[in-house]
Design goal:
Elements lengths: L5 E3 L2 E3 L3 E3 L8 H9 L4 E3 L16 E4 L2 E4 L8 H8 L8 E5 L4 H13 L4 E5 L10 H4 L2 H14 L4 E5 L5 H10 L5 E3 L3 E4 L1 E2 L4 E2 L5 E5 L4 H12 L6 E4 L5 H10 L3 E4 L2 H5 L3 H16 L14
Parallel strand pairs: 3-4, 3-16, 4-7, 7-8, 8-9, 9-10, 10-15, 15-16
Antiparallel strand pairs: 1-2, 5-6, 6-14, 11-14, 12-13
Helix pairs in contact: 3-5, 5-6, 7-8, 8-10
The structure holds flavin mononucleotide.
Flavin mononucleotide binds next to strand 6.
Length: about 300
């Protein structure tokens, strides 16, 4: 089977399936396991300046068409995480995900990730369930511009801001491109909640969480499609990609590469291998010879 591949800022993704942040990207061992199981790139868990415990349980609920999580960005803090990155010798690009509340936080964290050998940095401007971080930052276009500009000026590695599934993708994506980012990751989870009918209480310890998996695919597709129409930098599509057909729909909407997270829950640890095989079958059936030919096909 030929390996489908794409390239963003000189980073080669073979195949163009990248582990999404927060799912199996916490330790060197789990990241290695994901590469052994077919991932063409890895995004680490989002890491902040200090250690953070995250939200109280229950923090993950299975829904009819997806997962609802309110992990609350648990992580060991950037200095401790350096130990996981130390000696992490993977033959695929490793993208360090960081979150903060100010431009200075993002600069410091990105510089540290670069120092640890990350091939690119992903800026979490989009987690919907950690107050003061993530989507609270991503909803302020001026702040997003400042953060992206400052990080781009401070590191030599590519910078990939990750956005929430906002209604104004065009305004946000245009600002991100203007600020010098190398690619846009779209999207993070959708803010949502679940209620236990019997007890009449919210199920998640944090009440609100982020919805992921098959149910959010149409939302992610819509965001990628809109962004492709307004910027020239590459898009990394994410949200509900569970099989080869989903992956190619995201490519047709305008993605150059893809991130997958919840599919590991639905398809197993070798989700990337399975999705890649399905993509290959479909690509050859349609008579295409590469992914590049298919990018943005839904716009033509
Ligand atoms: C348990 C869990 C933890 C997550 N943690 C993070 C995180 O730390 N940082 C981040 O940017 N996104 C995080 N996400 C969001 C995913 O990276 C991804 O954007 C989202 O789940 C949509 O993709 P999917 O439908 O393929 O899972 C998390 C998702 C899940 C399910």
């Amino acid at each position: 089977m030929p390996t489908l591949h794409t390239e963003i800022s000189g980073l080669k993704f073979r195949p163009p399936l990248i582990l999404a942040s927060g799912v199996m990207g916490q330790t060197a061992g789990s990241m290695r396991k994901m590469v052994e199981n077919g991932m063409g790139g890895i995004v680490t868990k989002s890491i902040g300046l200090e250690a953070r415990k995250g939200h109280p349980n229950p923090s993950v609920v299975e829904m009819d068409t997806g997962l609802l999580n309110a992990m609350g960005l648990p992580n060991p803090g950037i200095d401790e995480f350096g130990k996981e990155m130390d000696g992490l010798d993977l033959d695929v690009p490793v993208i360090g995900s960081v979150y903060g509340s100010t431009a200075d936080d993002f600069v410091l964290l990105s510089e540290k990730m670069q120092g640890y050998g990350a091939d690119a940095v992903e800026l979490n401007l989009s987690c919907p369930h950690a107050e003061g971080y993530g989507a609270s930052i991503g909803s302020d276009i001026d702040l997003v511009g400042k953060i992206v500009e400052n990080v781009v000026d401070s590191v030599d590695i590519p910078v990939f801001p990750k956005i929430p599934p906002t209604s104004d993708t065009v305004g946000l994506a245009s600002q991100i491109e203007e600020s010098g980012a190398d690619a846009i990751v779209a999207v993070n989870t959708v803010k949502a909640m679940a209620i236990n009918y019997e007890t009449a209480h919210p199920i998640l310890g944090n009440v609100y969480g982020g919805y992921s998996g098959p149910g959010i695919k149409p939302i992610g597709l819509r965001c990628v499609y809109e962004i492709y129409g307004c910027v020239d930098i590459p898009i990394i599509g994410c949200g509900g990609i569970t099989n080869g057909r989903d992956a190619l729909e995201y490519i047709m909407a305008g993605s150059t590469s893809l991130e997958i997270g919840s599919s590991i829950y639905y398809r197993g640890l070798d989700a990337a291998d399975k999705i890649h095989a399905e993509m290959n079958d479909l690509v050859s059936k349609e008579g295409f010879s590469s992914i590049d030919e298919m990018i943005g096909a839904a716009h033509r």
